[in-house]
Amino acid sequence: MSTSSTSLYSGTISSILGNVNDAFSGKTSGIDVGTIVDELMQVERQPETVWQNEQSTISSQVSALTTMNTQLSTVATDVNNLQDIMGAFSQMSTASSDDALVSASADNTAVAGTHTVVVSNLATTSSSYSDYIPSGTSLAGTEIDIKYGSDPNNPVSSDTIDIPSSDTTLQQAASTINSGTYGVTASVVTDSTGSRLVLSSKTSGANGNLTVSSSSTNFTSAAGVDAKLTVDGVPVDSATNTVTGAISGVTLSLGSADPNTSVLISVQPDTTTASAAIQTFVTDYNTLMSSINSQYALDPTTGNEGVLAGDSMLRSLQSQLLGLVSTSTGAAGQYVNLQSMGIEMQDDGTLQINSSALSTALSSNYSDVQSFFQSTSPVGWGQTVSTQLQQMTDPTIGLISADISGLNQTNSSLTDEINDFEVRMTATQQQLTTQYDNLNTLLEEYPMQMQQVAAQLGSLPSASTSSSSSS
Predict the structure, then answer these.
(1) Which residues contact 143 (CB under 8 A, 6 or more apart)?
(2) Beta strand segments in 51-124, E
């Protein structure tokens, strides 16, 4: 029995004896059965208090472990991004010698290199405008026929637009056209002479050229043209000013035409994205390692370690993580481990990036760094560590998940014990109440019994009377 339990027990016994003595001495008419039973039940419930305290500790442990499991999963995601052939190390960036003429973007299928682009003319969009519509008249009830493409006799597509008779203004007619699924947008242009209905093709280039006819008014069309450019000397025709396919994996955005200026478009690995992915991994790994380390630090207020300090799993997790970031590989030339590229381990197990060393590695030996993280044959650091992290984060057999499962089972068993204990305590409380109710009845009857005894004694003949009688 603990010191606190012994003290509680002694105090309860002392209180009960005092209660009984007061009743015997006549200070009270009986004993306080409810208080006595409550005090006895506090003693009886000591095992339950221990179990409840244990459950409270388990709850804190599960909460801390759940946080760490989330942090571990985040680290696993970061490593997967580094080793994924479609991830951070597969991204490409572009640069242009004249963004005003041509800018570019690249996806992860692009190949590093430099390309020469000359833009002769930009793609334009065809438009068509009506004759002036006299004031007080409209196109209500008019049919407008539109053919799209360079050859009106062989159009790419066509539209027939019927202007409702209720559209009594040009603006209403324009709104009707714009609310439809036609290949044009409509607007109204008004000047000092009058108003015109203007149609603009939704398709740029020659395929969007408009040929418009109507029985109510004539339309005059301005043709659209395709963009003309050369890429590395190869002529390219594009219906839009966004050009794809001319350079594999690269999208060119044409801003202006200048047939006398060559624009250099360079495609290279995106070292900024790669560096950011490494930084994210280091940050998330340090968050996890700091969470582990905090469990072994003494709380300045209580002087105690964290709730997981005695959990052997935590030491195992810490050891495995330190092993992961120390893993070496021969798959990447001069880069055999994280430290060799500037990702250095500190005394507390966290990582720190030597920015200068990492920047040099990415700018001068990008392919080696990429191989370190992505190589599959021989197996590189990324795949090795990703596989181990996958096992560690497995929802069934992962270190933390298994530990949480064990704690939850223990907590469930304690709940069952507490429930069974409560059944027994209910019976015990009833039994104690009955016992002390009976005792209280006896104590309450005691004064009356004493009075009866005194009365009986008083009714007995006195000693002198008895002597006289004898004479």
Answers:
(1) 160, 161, 162, 163, 214, 215
(2) 92-96, 102-106, 113-121
Q: Name the token pair of 330.
A: 């021969």
DSSP 425: H
Integer Cα distance of 33 and 19 in angstroms: 9
Which residue in this structure is represented by tokens 């992961």?
324
Burial of 355 (0-12, 13-18, 19+ CB in 10 A): exposed
Contact criterion met (CB below 8 Å) for 180 and 161: yes
Radius of gyration of the chain (CA): 46
Flag residues of the chain having pLDDT under 70: 1-30, 331-332, 444, 446-459, 462-471
Q: Cα–Cα distances in Å, from 25 out to 17, 30, 91, 446? A: 12, 10, 94, 10
Contact present, 333 and 325 (Cβ < 8 Å): no
- What confidence tens digit (pLDDT) does each residue in 348-398 have? 999 999 999 999 999 999 999 999 999 988 889 999 999 999 999 999 999
Measured between alpha carbons, how far is 332 from 381 in angstroms, rounded to an integer?
Answer: 9
Whole-number pLDDT of residue 448: 62
Q: Which two tokens stand for residue 460?
A: 């007995």
The residue type found at 427 is: A
pLDDT of the residue at 298? 87
From CA 120, how far away is CA 221, in angstroms rounded? 23
* Per-residue confidence (pLDDT) for residue 17, from 0 to 100: 66
Evaluate the omega torsion of the peptide bond into residue 155 and state whether it is cis, within 30 degrees of 0. Answer: no
Considering the entire predicted model, what is its pTM? 0.72
Position 189: which residue type?
V
Count other C-beta atoms under 10 Å from residue 195's C-beta.
18
- Among candidates 269, 204, 271, 267, which has minimal Cα distance to 231? 267
Residue 308 to residue 292: CA distance in whole angstroms: 9
Instruction: For the beta carbon of residue 65, count every other beta carbon within 10 angstroms.
Output: 24
* 453/447 Cα distance (integer angstroms): 10
Q: How far apart are CA 310 and CA 281, in angstroms?
A: 28
Residues in CB range of 83: below 8 A, 6 or more apart: 373, 374, 380, 381, 382, 383, 385, 386
392: nearest Cα among 311, 315, 320, 329: 320
Q: What single DSSP character describes residue 89?
A: G
Query: What is the DSSP code string of 299-337?
Result: PTTT----TTTT-HHHHHHHHHHHHHHH---SSSTT--S
3-state secondary structure of 393: coil
User: Which pLDDT belongs to residue 268?
Assistant: 96
